[in-house]
Amino acid sequence: xxxxxxxxxxxxxxxxxxxxxxxxxxxxxxxxxxxxxxxxxxxxxxxxxxxxxxxxxxxxxxxxxxxxxxxxxxxxxxxxxxxxxxxxxxxxxxxxxxxxxxxxxxxxxxxxxxxxxxxxxxxxxxxxxxxxxxxxxxxxxxxxxxxxxxxxxxxxxxxxxxxxxxxxxxxxxxxxxxxxxxxxxxxxxxxxxxxxxxxxxxxxxxxxxxxxxxxxxxxxxxxxxxxxxxxxxxxxxxxxxxxxxxxxxxxxxxxxxxxxxxxxxxxxxxxxxxxxxxxxxxxxxxxxxxxxxxxxxxxxxxxxxxxxxxxxxxxxxxxxxxxxxxxxxxxxxxxxxxxxxxxxxxxxxxxxxxxxxxxxxxxxxxxxxxxxxxxxxxxxxxxxxxxxxxxxxxxxxxx
Length: 399
Hints:
The chain is an alpha/beta fold. It is 29% helix and 26% strand. The chain folds into three domains: 2-284, 4-Layer Sandwich (Purple Acid Phosphatase, chain A, domain 2); 290-347; 361-399, no CATH class. It has helices at residues 21-38, 57-71, 88-91, 95-100, 163-181, 299-308, 328-335, 349-356, 368-380, 386-398, and strands spanning 2-6, 42-46, 77-81, 103-106, 116-118, 121-127, 130-135, 138-145, 190-196, 198-199, 221-222, 232-236, 242-244, 248-250, 267-274, 277-284, 291-297, 315-322, 340-347.
């Protein structure tokens, strides 16, 4: 049996306010191609389908359009769970229509599905948080746990114990849930776990900004030892592909969503299960518009780079070391490259200190308006518009 594992699509997510619809459509098209090329039986999407609980309409439309394509009109099983960015009820609102195409949407822990035919497969057993399928002549027991906080699990961790013991208690509780479901599994069924969680010990550098501080002090992290044995464990939450022992894997996100994510390539995982043997391989995804950071010395070099990169498909963060502020005309030249989304000028430290202390000297021969414009420019790296100059003059008149 072949499975395609992906996660953390974050549909609708922007970069510094810029839409990324074309890039998201591109990776969805590529996943469709890979699914067909590998002739997979099942696709698992392990949470964080959207970037916010109430996603924009176009993001939802994109999701449903590509779910239908990926399912191949019900011939292929699709398993989707909610992540911490998703609204569980909103995600599962289309369940009745999705069933026709063999799509199972799980929003919250302990959801139970009806026994019956879904697309090209059957649910033969159903429990809270688990189903057993008959798919292409194979039995598959799915142990499903969407994003599970203390609140969604209806559990209470004592506030009188330290964070380490609270984390241990949470991890053991997750293990109990997953192990309990195994008593319902047929012995000859493949065991697949699907969840959206933190593995205890994931390095802070591997946790992207939008995922940090969600689990206070690492309380909602699961120890590897508490995850029961399975033919495969498909995880979401971490945007970098990570493979642990015992076939436990994060697929990572299919797109760079932050500058720090340009350090690792994006992929989906193809999982081939045959008896007790599980083979996992990477299928790399094309990055049609990578996120880049350039650090330059001198405004002239920044203008040169901007013009050189004007037709290159990149999102550009630009840091410029300079001994003076950037003039408006120079800023326009740099910004003529629409792919430059952040410009960070770093002025000589000594001069910056004088500006911040209010000790920056202005030529006495300049008019007060010219002096104001120059000082404003030194503080903000742009000249003031006429409205600001007029407000400054009005303040002078009042005083």
